[in-house]
Amino acid sequence: MLMLVIELRLMQIIGLGTALMMPIIGNLSDQYGRKALLALPMTLSIIPLAILACNRTTNYFYAYFAFKTLTDMVCQGSINCLALAYLADNVSYRQRSSAFGILAGITSAAYVCGTLAARFLSTGLAFQVATFVSLFAVVYMRIFLEESIPADQGEGITQPILKEGEEDNIIQNDDNAPTKVPPFRKIPSLGDVIYLMKNSPSFAQAAIVAFFNNLGEGGMESSSMYYLKARFHFNKNQFADLMLIGGIVATISQLFIMPVLVSPIGDGRLLSIGLFASCVYAILYSIAWSAWVSNDTDNLQMI
Predict the structure, then answer these.
(1) What would the pLDDT profile of 124-181 be if each residue is shown by its tens digit?
(2) Cβ–Cβ < 8 Å for 39, 138
(3) Directed axis angle between helix 123-144 and helix 34-44, to 10°?
(4) Would you say the C-alpha torsion 32, 34, 39, 42 has a positive or negative sign?
């Protein structure tokens, strides 16, 4: 119970830091490029892994937790968001949903490979391999990835919303009618965020859906493993098997099913189906009466 409380407190700290840093990172990536900003979280994420790759004594473990908390304020979510932004810069509007699904499927496939490695490698070797792979990803990104700067593409809808500017700055609203907006500062105030949400109903609705969905997923992620261990006495291998099931079905869904369904049923209906499946997933987990229920419930992640 104590570890659950500690993890929840750390998640609160990380969440607060992420809420402050993500708008800044996104704004800077609009001005200086996705590749330049992507290098920061990818490099910082190597530090905690390298600490445990060197040693796993108590002092190193405390250092890992400290650096993990600090780096997650910058890294958690920012790598995925910058990758999606880079993809959006280089893919046409009509193909973005399918492209996002394929990227999510590749991410899930990487998650499956990482879980398999943790399943069969020793703890020390697993951290060493993770450190090497993360370092390789940074080097590969710096060498082969081309820079993408939205400000140089001449598209009004991709201009930084937090960029300093003149009073005649405009933002494209949902009716394709330009609306004047005041100049934004580098760090957005609460008033700036409220103004943006008022002038873009679609953005406001997406933000509300994302908030409540992540609220539920965050609480479930923090407590589900402790619940499974306390209720069904899961061990390390069973947790790995459970993650593998979820990762495999998510990979199949995002790589092969989602791109096919986007065109005939539309983004909105697909999102509704996914949210409904998440609710069923959480309900079944909360009333699970046997270990097989949690295993089979993971198949809902395919949706």
Answers:
(1) 898 999 999 999 999 999 999 888 877 565 544 444 444 444 444 444 444 444 444 4
(2) yes
(3) 160
(4) positive
> CB of 129 within 8 A of CB of 117?
yes
**pLDDT value of residue 233:** 77
- Mind listing the pLDDT tens digit for each residue in 187-234? 556 677 777 778 878 778 888 888 887 777 776 766 777 777 777 777
- 251 close to 109: Cβ distance less than 8 angstroms: yes
Give me the domains of the chain, ranges plus CATH numbers.
1-152 (1.20.1250.20), 182-303 (no CATH)
Q: Which of 4-13, 36-45, 67-76, 181-190 has the lowest mean pLDDT?
A: 181-190
Number of residues in the chain: 303
Question: What are the tokens at 265?
Answer: 């049923």
Q: To which H or E segment does residue 114 belong? A: helix 96-120
For Cα atoms 39, 146, 37, give the angle at the middle one, nearest 5 degrees.
Answer: 25
- 259-269 in b/e form (b: 16+ CB < 10 A) is bebbeeeeeee
Measuring CA to CA, how many Å separate 223 from each of 5, 229, 247, 285, 286? Answer: 10, 10, 19, 11, 11
**Residue 161 backbone dihedrals phi, psi, to 5 degrees:** -80, -15
Give phi and psi for 290, each to the nearest 5: -155, 160
Which secondary structure element, helix H or strand E, spans residue 141, and what is its range?
helix 123-144
Structure tokens at 264: 């005939």
Secondary structure element (H or E) that encloses residue 7, with its range? helix 2-32
Continuous segment of H or E residues that includes residue 170: strand 170-172
Tokens of 278: 């998440």
Beta-bridged to residue 179, according to DSSP, are 171
Q: 172 in helix, strand or coil?
A: strand
The count of other CB atoms within 10 Å of the CB of residue 141 is 15
